[in-house]
């Protein structure tokens, strides 16, 4: 489980490759007709959210939530209070079987952090520690800086690294590629005797913004402090070094890693009328980083998930199978809430018909990104046609899994989907102080909830189970 | 002078209205031919900057400058050191008559500032004081917050303002419109007994970014502390208030306003071969705010100005009239360097043929924004045709003045121009920690310098003086 968690660290998003949609679907005519028969229901759901009773509801509930709790960090009492609030909210909106499911989660907090450039020019150096980092000794670290752009450059410098602060000024390529410097930079540099590591914030766009995130120490390698700096300061260091100027930095980093503590995945359902044991799962994660308020990552995803069920309940819609909203805890420190859930529900996974997660933004929705095999893809293509009133009719297959928490499930075992949306700016705000309600738009949240509700409802209500065949060897998920 | 300075506070930019370019220019054929005869020279200038010896030079010199000095605040020793460096640089590149001209400038510094939301949820509140603000008493201010979007709303609330902290959550309309809340918010709220004022940062786009700027207390109104907060926090306060939630904030703001001190406008020239007393002036300002490093505002404008002369000198080009680069000091506290220069050169203004300033960004250049009357506009339209190799052929008239320091000159008295460029994102970075070298692009700086060099050289070299007639009553600039 640990290995799995380490391998798939945090959002494995935007990794999908667009492959041509199979235009030669051969779904049975009666299945096509059955899907088409949901048109009126789909339109009712959409209308209730875009012009009716539920218009603005997702945004307003989410705003009240984040304005009340702010950041919701794994291991904190504040997160547990936020979870209590979310559970109460799901009950208030009529969801069934509302409860928390325990998970033991990491608890790492930043106490104080300061950076200063001493040479070639005295200046403040804003730093933001990476999750799980150790701190410096009480009197800090003062050392010369060496800037590298890649791990290969680091290896090339070899013995000259000893005693230095390594700055990784990695280029933004994709999140999946560039995040390696955040995840593994500290241990990679520690092998060569570095004193500390600063990484350029992993983002395609910066306004002197700091973007934190979890990092992993490799076993057997000395643990050195690691933090991010802005893209701008990384580039400044690059220019100093390229001009042959000596760079000296002082760091005071103070963090505490507490014992793991109890948290909960939050669950609410609409129980199935015919097959209550069969589950279509919609999800997002409720925890966030400690900077910003996690409105985008992943307040939006968590709230469209339970609110989709609230809307369906309010419209009197009960599908044949159970619809289950899960608000994962402790996604940020490595999908920890999901791992606990997977362990305790592993023997029931055969009953999981379809799993969905939104953790890549709830900007203007375009449709569905799916990992569901050829036949499953054809079904989704039919379903999203019913989203024409909100122009969210794209069905894009993923060659890997989808979602973050559910990525291990959907990369091999279970068919699933994530929300395809206009999230080109997602990483501008990701894990930074800029992740606030201002990133979100009420109308886009309405439409995102509509996509979520329509797709999950239809899949949960179809006569036949969604096809499990992923056209790939079925790989066992380690539990 | 004071009155003038107060009236035209800081960049009066983006106030121009696009009016249709006069397509019926009736310039004398010999003048058109004379302008066309500069094609080879213009192309040489452009090539030297885009592919030749000077390629990358503007960016590299500017980067060295801002990396060495960082922010350059009016009244500080650091600004004076930066001015010494700039003067030495102009000499090194062969400019003539390089010297500083004294100006008495404001000196306001932030010592410490902290904001905290106490109710309805304890949270840190990042604040950034506005230039010239007084501080709070040593133990700070703790008061209830009232949010208004407009001055009219403030007046409507009247007596309920007493003892409160007023938050101006003004919408972004244009900089010229919205900046009124920054410039005058404190005095407007103080009339009603407010204890302090927080304004929403004046920007169309925020990443939880703080945007400072100068503010003006009205004479006879009690001076209360004033700072900006992020757009996100202003919107948060709006939501709290709209829900009927009580908001309490604590502020500790500590600033010092020192006596005005001596600074200098930095001057370098290529003296005219035929009319050395006649001047074409190119300019930008060398001072900056204390957040960020003023790379964009206005390092770019200052550096394309002197570097344009450096390139012309390097190419052996000496125009008939004198080309003068001026790097204004203390623009940010209200065009103070310009005012001193205007006062000491007021009797020579008849010799100022044409004045140029770039203080609206040096992004991809599009051409010239001018305030030059109908005939002058026709001449500029001919000149910018020579900028076709870099697609900077637009000539857009302004109905007001152009530039910031030179706005009083160009709104009535003198013909002038500013750099038209793709500056849609200018105010994203303006007066914030995000104003760094990363905003700028080496190629765009090369092209901006080329526009500056070509236009100023031709106007300084034409047989006849650039027409002074502004087709408006000539208003005397107060000195």
Automatic annotation (TrEMBL), chains A, B:
Q: Which GO terms describe its biological process?
A: proteolysis
Q: Where in the cell is it found?
A: Endoplasmic reticulum; Golgi apparatus; Lysosome; Secreted
The keyword Glycoprotein appears for this protein: yes
* Pfam families for the chain: Peptidase_M28
Gene3D superfamilies per UniProt: 3.50.30.30, Zn peptidases (3.40.630.10)
Q: Which GO terms describe its molecular function?
A: carboxypeptidase activity; metal ion binding; metallopeptidase activity
State the UniProt keywords alphabetically. Answer: Carboxypeptidase, Endoplasmic reticulum, Glycoprotein, Golgi apparatus, Hydrolase, Lysosome, Metal-binding, Metalloprotease, Protease, Secreted, Signal, Zinc, Zymogen
Q: Where is the Peptidase M28 domain?
A: 265-454
Q: Domain of life, per the record?
A: Eukaryota
Q: Which residues form the signal peptide?
A: 1-23
Chief localisation class: endoplasmic reticulum
GO CC terms on record?
Answer: endoplasmic reticulum; extracellular region; Golgi apparatus; lysosome
Protein family (similarity comment): Belongs to the peptidase M28 family.
Record's subunit section: Homodimer. The monomeric form is inactive while the homodimer is active.
Which PANTHER family is this protein grouped with?
Answer: CARBOXYPEPTIDASE Q (PTHR12053:SF3), PROTEASE FAMILY M28 PLASMA GLUTAMATE CARBOXYPEPTIDASE-RELATED (PTHR12053)
What name goes with this protein?
Carboxypeptidase Q
- Organism equals Hypothenemus hampei
């Amino acid at each position: 489980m640990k290995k799995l968690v380490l391998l798939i660290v945090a959002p494995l998003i935007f990794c999908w490759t667009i492959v041509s949609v199979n235009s030669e679907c051969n779904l049975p005519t009666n299945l096509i007709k059955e899907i088409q028969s949901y048109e009126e229901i789909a339109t009712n759901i959409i209308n209730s959210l875009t012009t009716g009773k539920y218009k603005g509801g997702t945004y307003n509930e989410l705003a009240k939530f984040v304005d009340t709790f702010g950041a919701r960090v794994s291991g904190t009492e504040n997160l547990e209070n936020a979870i209590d609030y979310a559970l109460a909210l799901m009950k208030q909106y009529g969801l069934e079987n509302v409860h928390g499911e325990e998970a033991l989660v990491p608890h790492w907090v930043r106490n104080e952090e300061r950076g200063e450039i001493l040479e070639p020019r005295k200046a403040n150096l804003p730093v933001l520690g990476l999750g799980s980092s150790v701190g410096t000794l009480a009197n800090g670290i003062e050392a010369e800086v060496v800037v590298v752009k890649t791990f290969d450059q680091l290896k090339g410098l070899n013995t000259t690294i000893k005693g230095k602060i390594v700055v990784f000024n990695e280029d933004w390529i994709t999140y999946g590629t560039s995040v390696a410097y955040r995840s593994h930079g500290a241990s990679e540099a520690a092998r060569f005797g570095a004193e500390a590591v600063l990484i350029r914030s992993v983002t395609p766009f910066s306004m002197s913004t700091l973007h934190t995130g979890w990092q992993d120490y490799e076993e057997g390698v000395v643990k050195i402090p690691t933090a991010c700096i802005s893209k701008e300061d990384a580039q400044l260091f690059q220019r100093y070094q390229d001009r042959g100027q000596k760079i000296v930095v002082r760091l005071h980093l103070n963090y505490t890693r507490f014992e793991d503590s109890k948290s909960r995945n939050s669950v609410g359902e609409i129980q199935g009328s015919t097959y209550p044991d069969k589950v279509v799962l919609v999800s997002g994660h409720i925890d966030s980083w400690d900077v910003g308020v996690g409105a985008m990552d992943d307040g939006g995803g968590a709230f469209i998930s339970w609110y989709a069920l609230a809307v369906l309940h309010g419209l009197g819609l009960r599908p044949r199978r159970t619809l289950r909203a899960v608000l994962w805890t402790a996604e940020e420190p490595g999908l920890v809430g999901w791992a606990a859930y997977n362990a305790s529900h592993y023997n029931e996974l055969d009953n999981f018909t379809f799993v969905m997660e939104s953790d890549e933004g709830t900007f203007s929705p375009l449709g569905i990104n799916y990992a569901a095999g050829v036949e499953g893809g054809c079904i989704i293509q039919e379903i999203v046609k019913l989203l024409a009133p909100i122009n969210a009719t794209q069905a894009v297959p993923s060659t890997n899994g989808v979602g973050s928490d559910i990525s291990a499930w959907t990369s091999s075992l279970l068919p699933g989907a994530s929300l395809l949306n206009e999230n080109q700016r997602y990483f501008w705000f990701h894990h930074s102080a800029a992740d606030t309600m201002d990133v979100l738009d009420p109308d886009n949240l309405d439409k995102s909830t509509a996509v979520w509700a329509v797709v999950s409802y239809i899949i949960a209500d179809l006569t036949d189970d969604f096809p499990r065949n992923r056209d790939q060897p079925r790989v066992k998920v380690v539990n």
